Predict the structure.
Amino acid sequence: MTIANALRQIQERRLILPAIQREYVWKPSQVIRVFDSVMRGYPVGSFLSWRVMPDTISDFKFYGFMKDYSAFDNKHNPVIDIPTDREVVAILDGQQRLTSLNIGLRGTYAYKNHGGWANKSWSYPERRLFLNLAGEAPENELGLKYHFQFLTDADVEAARDDETKIWLPVADVFGASEMSSLIQLLAKHGVGNDPVASGLVSTLWDAIHKTASLHFYEETEQDIERVLDIFVRVNSGGTVLSYSDLLLSIATAQWEGDARAAVHGLVDELNNTGNGFSFSRDTVLKAGLVLNDVRDISFKVKNFTAANMEQLEAGWDTLSTSLQVAVGLLSDFGLSGGSLTADSVLIPVAYYVHHRNLDHAYRQSPNTREDRMGLRSWVLRSLIIRGIWGSGLDTLLRDVREVIRSEGAESFPVAAIERAMAARGKSLAVTDALLDDVLSLEYGRPRTFAVLAALFPHVDTRNQFHVDHIFPASLLEQKSLRRLAQSDGTPQFTPDEIAELTERKNQLPNLELLPGLENIGKLAEVPANWVAANYATSEERSSFLERNALPDQLPHGAAEFDSFFRARRELLETRIRTTLRPADVEYAPQSPPVLALDEELAGGDDVD
C-alpha cells in the first residue's frame, strides 16, 4: 500500500499495535534517514502484520501509533479500545518505521535542546519535520540527498530571510491528497514557478500518495501463541532477551493493572539500592516465574499462559518485597552494579527469602547472622567461579529452587545446593585451575571484590570498603622503578624485573579491602610504615596481619616487594583452599552431566 493509505488506516485505528510491541525508540536522525530513503525511491523494508478477527480482539490489548512524541512527557503509546464488531490489522514487525512516518507526516517530535535542563518542559520544544525546497542537502556524513530537518516555529521564522532555506512542512504534503491540492500547495508557498522547489515537492508527493512502497506479509491465523512465536522470531532471531518484552507484553494484556508500570517501577527501585545496581527487567521477570513456582521457567511462549500471568499478578506485592530484601542482602554483602558479575544470582537469594517469608529484619538480626554468613559465602563463591551463571541457567535455577523448597525451611541449605550444582557440572570445588585463576585476578575487575569479600569474612561489607593496593601502585610504575639506583649508581632493577613488578602490582596478592576513609588516609604510604603507625602494639599488629593474610615481614620499599608478593600469594592460596569451600561439603567424583539440547547448543555462549 502507499504511505498515505497506511497513515489513514492508523488515523482510523484500523492499523494498530499489539501489546507485544516495545515502545518507540527511534532518534530524529533515524526519522530523517527513512524520509530521505522514501524520496529517493529506496525500499524501506517489508512489514509483518496480523489480521485480527473480532472474536480475537477481546483476548488481547492494543495500542495506537505514536503521533506527537515527547522525550520529556509523552513516550508511551496510547492504549485504545477496539470495537469488537470489525477486524483490524496489528503490526508485528515495522512499528518503528511506520511510527516515524506517522510522526513526520502527521505529528511532532519534541527532544531536549542542547544544554537544556533535563527536568524542565521548556527544554523540549515541539518540532515538526520540514523539507528544504531551496535545493538538495549540503554535503553530509550521513549520505543524505534531501534536506529534511525537525524545526520549531521559531526556527522557521528565523530562516525566513535566508535564501538557502525554503522550509515546507512535510505534513502539508500528506494533507494534499489530490493533485489539485498539490498545485494549491505549491502556490501557497510561492514556489509554483520554481522548477527545483516544485520538483522536490512533487517527488515527495509521489512517494507518499502514489507509490505503493509498503509491502506487507499478513498472518491470518487467530492462534495467539503462534502469532507471538512469529513475533519473537522475526524481532529477535531467537535472542533470549527479547522474550522479556514478550512476557511483559502478555502481562500487560492479561493483568488488571498496569504491568509495564509495575515492572519498570520495581526495576528502578531495585537498582537504586545501596551503591546502585543495573538489574534488567529480564532478571525481574525471570524471578517472577521462579518465585511463583512456575514449573518451566524458560522464556518460551508456551509458558506465558493466562494462569501463570494471573498467578504472577496476584503475588506481585509479595514478590516485590522478596526481591527488595534480596537486593538489600546483596548490597550488605558489599556488591553493587560494578562488582556483581552475574545478575541471576539475585533469583535464588530472592527465592530463599520468599520461601521463608523473610523481611528486612533478617538482614540485621543477630539471630540470623550465621545463616546470613552461609548465604553470603555461597553468593560470593558462585560469582568467583567462571561459568556458574552462564549456559544452562534455567536448569540451575530449577535445581536450586527445588533444594530450597525441600530443605530450606529453617536455614539456607548450602551443602545440599552445592551438591545439586556439582551434579549439573557447576561445582564450587576449589581446583588448581581455580587457584591460578583467582590469584591472577587484578585490580578493577568485577570478580576481584567478590574474591576479597569471600576470603575475608571479618570485613563488614555493609560499610563502604575499597579495594586497596597494599604496596602503593604509584611506587611500582615503570618511571618510578627506573629512577631507583643502587649505592654504586647502577639501576636497581633490570628491564625484565621492572616489567614483572609492574605486572604484579595490580594482582590479587597485592590487594586488600580497607574501609573507605582509612584507604583515603593511607595514600601512598609503604605498608611497613603504615601498619607501624596505625597499630601501636605487637598484638594489634599481629591481629591485623592475621586477619588480612599478610606476611610478618612487610616491605619498606620496592626492593622488598617481590619477596612480599610471593609470601602473600602462599598465604592467599592456603586461605582460598580453606575458605572458598565449606568444610561439610564433599565433592564426590561426578559423571558428565546430561545436558538438554538447548544447553548443548549454548555451549559457546559464555563470555567471562
